[in-house]
């Protein structure tokens, strides 16, 4: 009935490498990479807007996202903000 094709940005794209480095710096661990099921807002940017190299990143447990009992921890929010700040600093300054 409804099909949305999964999408994944190349691991060598600047937004991916910058985000990975920021995750390692803020969280002290390497990021995990997942294929977007194509149902996030990312699909609009990737397919409709035709702007490639788009990723989805944010705090919280992926399996809980957009579910009735979704929740996000305060530390997760702070860490995510730190990661995003480093990514923006790197991508916008360079």
Descriptive overview:
It is a single chain. The chain has 94 residues and is an all-alpha fold. Helix content is 44%, strand content 0%. It is built from three helices and no strands. α1 (14-27) crosses α3. The radius of gyration is 14 Å and the shape is globular. The model has no long low-confidence stretch (mean pLDDT 86).
Number of helices: 3
As a percent range, the share of strand residues is: under 5%
Tally of DSSP β-strands: 0
Order of helices and strands: HHH
Helix/strand/pairing category: mainly alpha
Return the average pLDDT rounded to an integer.
86
Characterize the main sheet. none
The percent of residues in helical segments reads: 40-55%
**Basic shape:** globular
Note poorly predicted spans. none
Give the CA-CA distance, first to last residue. Answer: 44 Å
| Cα-based radius of gyration, to the nearest Å | 14 Å
Label this structure with key terms.
94 residues; mainly alpha; 3 helices; 44% helix
In short:
With 94 residues, the protein is an all-alpha fold. Helix 1 (14-27) packs across helix 3 (74-93).
């Amino acid at each position: 009935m409804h099909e949305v094709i999964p999408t994944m940005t190349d691991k060598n794209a600047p937004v991916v490498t910058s985000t990975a480095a920021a995750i390692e710096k803020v969280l002290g661990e390497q990021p995990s990479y997942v294929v977007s099921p194509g149902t996030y807002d990312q699909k609009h940017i990737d397919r409709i807007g035709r702007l490639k190299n788009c990723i989805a990143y944010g705090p919280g447990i992926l399996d809980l996202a957009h579910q009735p009992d979704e929740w996000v921890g305060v530390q997760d929010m702070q860490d995510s903000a730190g990661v995003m700040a480093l990514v923006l600093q790197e991508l916008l300054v360079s």
